[in-house]
Amino acid sequence: MKIAKLGLEHDFAIKRMRLIAARSVGQDVEEIVDPSRVLADNRYERTYLDPDNHGYHCYGALGEDGSLYAVIAFKQEPLRGRWLLQWLCSDSLLDNGRALNGVFDIVDHVLRLNEAEGMPSWLGCIPAKYQRVYDRLWRQHCPAYRGYRVAECQLVPAHSVAPDSEHFGELFGFAVQAIDMLVRTHIKINEEN
Fold first, then answer.
1. At the topology level of CATH, where does 55-188 sit?
2. What is the rounded CA–CA span in Å between residue 117 and residue 115?
3. For residue 193, what pLDDT is reported?
4. What is the SS3 assignment for 95?
5. Phi and psi at residue 40, in whole multiples of 5°?
6. pLDDT attached to residue 83
7. Of 25, 35, 155, 165, which sees the most CB atoms within 10 A?
8. CA 22, CA 10: separation in Å to the nearest integer?
9. Do the Cβ atoms of 91 and 98 come closer than 8 Å?
């Protein structure tokens, strides 16, 4: 498995991952995501995959044959010293049996990359009912994640928009979620303490 920044040649595989990602948070994909609209959507080309768009990035776990197994998309906010984990997704099993098919390897890579670029804080969202499971899995399989703690946590109730959630659209794609979600800010733990 190789971790690489993705380009336009990965557009179709990334769109396919978007359909998988919707299922991963317990949503009925057929009701909220029209596959034909996803495949026709060119947002990924204009944002994550455009080499001239320096704020948005997409990294993936690629197999030896070039197949895409996992994807992470994020937006950097260097002036604020943070980045937004916009979505992540994994596909079929890798031979090494790595948990979530390499997604943790990419998260680990992206955490270290953004830290090195002066962004030791990041925002992400997770389904509220899986908070403990997520934290346990991330700490177990992502060494860099162990160096962070959740500094802020905001509940976004199902079928609603949090009025003070600055990044709602960027984290949720402007779609009201069918389940309770948590927007969490992670900060680097000061190793001197």
1. Aminopeptidase (3.40.630)
2. 5
3. 40
4. coil
5. -85, -15
6. 95
7. 165
8. 19
9. no
Report yes or no: 125 and 108 within 8 Å, Cβ to Cβ. no
Backbone angles phi, psi at 109, to 5 degrees: -60, -45
Q: Which residue has the tokens 């779609």?
A: 175
CA separation for the pair 66, 83 (Å, rounded): 27
d(CA 62, CA 115): 23
Place of tokens 């944002």: 47
Q: What phi and psi, each to the nearest 5 degrees, are found at residue 111?
A: -60, -45
Q: pTM, whole model, 2 decimals?
A: 0.81
3-state secondary structure of 189: coil
- Closest by CA position to 126, among listed 185, 39, 43: 185
Domain boundaries defined on the chain = 1-53, 55-188
Distance (Å, whole) CA 61 – CA 86: 17
C-beta of residue 99 within 8 angstroms of C-beta of residue 44? no
* Token pair of 164 as six digits: 């003070």
